[in-house]
Amino acid sequence: MINQIISKSTKIKPDEFRAVILSFAFIFSILAAYYIIRAVRDGLSSNWSDAELSTVWTMTFFISFLVVSFYSYICSKVNFKYLVPGIYGFFSLTFFCAYALLKINPETELVRKAFYIWVSVFSLLNISVFWSFMADIFNKEQAKRLFGFIAAGSSLGAIIGPTITLIFAERLGSETLILVSSTMLFIPLTIAVLLGKATDSDGHNQQNNERAMGGNFWDGFLEFLKPPILKNLLFGIGMFIVIYTGMSTFVYFAIKNILTDIDQDTRTQIWAGIDLAVNILAVFTAMFGTARLTKKFGLKVTLPLVPMIIVFGMLILAISPILWVVVGLQVVRRAGEYAITKPAREMLFTTLDRDVRFKGKSVIDVVVYRAGDIMWAWLFTGLTQVLGLTLGGVAAVGSAVAIVWSYLGFRLGKNFDTE
Fold first, then answer.
1. Global pTM value
2. What CATH number should be reported for the domain holding residue 108?
3. Which of 8, 95, 315, 343 is most buried (CB neighbours < 10 A)?
4. Residues 6+ away with beta carbon under 8 Å from 14
């Protein structure tokens, strides 16, 4: 009876239950750890002007390029079964070091900016590694049924993380929360080992897990730029992500500027409150709605759905450029991304082989994403500080960009459905 209830409500088959629950716990723990320090990072942004933050984002792009290149090198040299656990162990240790540096040099702006950059690198690479791992475990048919439920684990983790921050930021101080996050990253490390052992039950997978992928560190970049460029799936996904970063950047800068005159701990709590609202909205949609949406309508509807909502949201913001409209748009945009767009986008990678998933995917998830960040950050700075556009004017530009985003999502989804 329990199996029937689970199967009907979540589309999970009994023989998939263990792997799905472990995957759910995996993404739950890494998102909880990340969201504890995300608000700490975002709270720092109001210390800097638009130009300073754009410069920080530019540095984030170059650091991301170096990190992804090194990651691709590691993929080529390290046995696959050690790769995923090693990534989370490495980041855990670096955050312990970041805490020590912030305590030793509490007033040094360089350390704060370095911490902001490193959290931004971690935020994308750790998620990219996770979904690459998921696409390695589950096939295309399973992805349509299971990725929505698994993604709900990220939303649930992203509820617990900011809740911890909201409760303890003032009591412990923002920097102490870095220790909590660092410690939590040992949980996904352990789960990655367990999932790796589960896939070893297949003889073919065991053979693949016992070897490195081979190749060179630049393979992922070559895959992204592989001709014909207009038919290259990685390039198409990369452009989809670039436009997504535009929507994210416009709203982020707007909120950042509004919070300039508020103290650090209060800013941290406000950002955590936004995160909490986003993920409460996202968790039930991802757990019970996404699988039904993708099964019934396919990705040609699922991928452009949130972009079309953003088109109308930006138009509303252009007419009424006030705080609560910006916050509402941020909540709807991010909840839709986590619950619908993200798992749908990750389904596209199930048609690619392991080397492309782990090397090429990290390029578009981190380097291309951060390139989009700096492009849109400087564009926002230019629109506001050079051309003098108000928030309403920027929103009008954003609505036009979101229309292009919707069309690209439709094309990617349609190609996936017809394969």
1. 0.69
2. 1.20.1250.20
3. 343
4. 3, 6, 7
